[in-house]
Input
Amino acid sequence: MALIEINNLVKNYVNGEVTTPVLRGLNFKIEKGEFVSIMGPSGSGKSTLMHILSFLDKLTTGTYLFEGSDVSNFTDDHLADMRSRRVGFIFQAFNLLPRTTVLENVMLPLVYTSMGAKAREASAVAALNAVGLSHRLNYQPNQLSGGEKQRVAIARALVGEPAVIFADEPTGNLDSKSGLQVMKILQDLNNEGHTIILVTHEKYTADHGKRILRIKDGEIVADEIVKNRQMADGATELNK
Amino acid sequence: MRLIEQIHSVWHVIGRNKIRSFLTMLGIIIGVMAVIIVISVGGGAQSLILNQVKSMGSNLVGVLPGKSDEKGPPASAMGIVITTLKNDDIEEIQKQIPEITAASGYVKGVVTITGGDQSTDSNFTGVSADYVNVEDADVGSGRFFNNEEDRAASRVVVLGTTVAEELFGGDDPLGRQVKIKKTMFTVIGVMKKRGTAGMQNQDNQVFVPLITAQKLLLGINHVSYARFKVDEADKVDSAMKQMEIVLRAQHEIEDPENDDFTVRSMAQGLEAITTITNALKMFLAAIAAIALVVGGVGIMNIMLAAVEERTREIGLRKAVGAKNRDITSQFLTESIMITFCGGIIGVALGILVSFVIAKVAQGYDYDWDFVISIPAIIVGCGISIGIGLIFGISPANRASKLDPIEALRYE
Output
């Protein structure tokens, strides 16, 4: 059973009487443990695809099987549950809550689960450990560098032990060194078995994944294995 | 459990914007404070009046000239002069009804009194010698006049302490002469200090014999009203009935419809006063409550701004798994906590101000109770929570309906 299985996925935006097709019949599978880059120019529909895959948006026609169950007829509450339990998000703009500590930011997804307060804190500390920020627990986002902010966001994505982590242009707001650090963490997480879906418009960033889905005008134009994979190992030095 | 956590996190948000939160609360604080003060001060003023009336004794019966219905005020209270009640009516009642232990007619006026080297404006009251028994009044020094002096229209006067002080300073006024309306009177006594009662200084008046006041000072032969003391409180009702019969015989009235007098007990008076002051209190509290509505609109305004300001936060919370109702309850908790805190502060300030007012009033010798009504506090807090709920629900709903994708992109 594939982690994600998309059959003939169509997404239209309807505005009054004008129907704009965004995704025109996509088919693909993503297995557990993959590192897939969804790549395409702006307006190609890659963000919409990510929103549907991550339960933020609903498809128009077609089927979306996640861990074997058909997501198309889930209720809003059920989709919210899926977001809190099965997926993690990393955004281009970090989206950390201002004037709220790093620890509390990382605990946020767990607030909407039934987990107890003690267990939440323990999970958040563990996730921050995994991104090398255990010394910043009580800092606030405005006291952190861009790279550190994105690492907090990665910890927040990790904390619920999701089946898949979605990263939407995670290096878009970072300088190249910090960007490399973030990609290094994503590659390490993938090596530990996490499934990662990266959305980007840059070939260089996309090449850090193992497989690229190229999208153009709402269609998949190529589904290929990355031949010369970029390894972010150089970033280990920058960690010092 | 979850609620406590939510309150904790909302408290954090409120604390972040201390000044804004406080200004938002201000409307509620002022509103709740006003309601508490109005109810408390109203209760104090009510107690003042009731204490006054009670101090005169519950077995007092008053007779007023002119007919009035049960609840309404008598005609004389509206400044209409009715001359039907005479001295012999009072004597007849006292003679025929054994339960009446003391009785006095009253006439009143304002005069300038000259004595020593000073003069002062004062109220004078013409009463029978029985006055001291009717109202349990005490003479401080000297004596009150007696029946003989009353019947003889003697020119004697008993001063209130304020008048005595203003005319004679520290000197002993007993035996001195004072001039009232071109007539010389001999001071035979000074009343004991009584303080302020019935909204006027009881010590700024002088007592002269009833007939002296009628003949020499006013030139009339009727009384403004009369008061009777019944020997026991539970005989008041039967005494009142007998008084009506005596008065009808005196005035040759056959049909009670044509009564030209009103007999009222203190208990009835108390009831009437309580009804009026309660209505007044509620009316003022309702006006004060308008401030609460204004405060509520302020809350709504701020909450709408907060939803706008925190659009990205809402988007993020939804993206990481918050359901619509989680967002609704977050913002609703916030608005309710703001109004509830405002309510608590308002109650505290209201109690404080009421306490100060009561202390000041007591400092002026008013018989003023510091009244704190527990229902008023509960209602104040309850209303503030209700306002948070009513005015918070629309912003909270707006927040919960935001599309997470749009919200995350919001700049």
User: Anything to note?
Assistant: The mean pLDDT of chain B is 85. The first strand of chain B starts at residue 60 and ends at 65. Chain B has 13 helices and twelve strands.
